[in-house]
Design a protein that fits this description.
3 helices; single chain; mainly alpha; globular; 74 residues; DUF2783 domain-containing protein
């Protein structure tokens, strides 16, 4: 089951780390970085059903919400 409640210990710090990693990258390099990060995190999760739920939720919302995401359908 996809967990959508806030769980990142320091979300602002994580966001800053991602933004810092983008510094100096052109758009294509930033997209490649984002793809690598997504694949690394997907590998860490490892559960194909959870990953499919995450993809469906990301496709349905289009933008990162300010509030916790609703649970994706099972």
């Amino acid at each position: 089951m996809l967990r959508t409640e806030p769980r990142i210990e320091d979300p602002d710090g994580f966001y800053q780390a991602v933004m810092d990693a983008h510094r100096g990258l052109d758009e294509a390099a930033a997209r490649r970085f984002d793809a690598r990060l997504a694949l690394i995190l997907a590998n860490h999760i490892g559960d194909a059903a959870v990953l499919r739920q995450a993809v469906a939720l990301a496709a349905a919302t289009g933008e990162a919400p300010a509030a916790p995401l609703p649970s994706a359908p099972a």
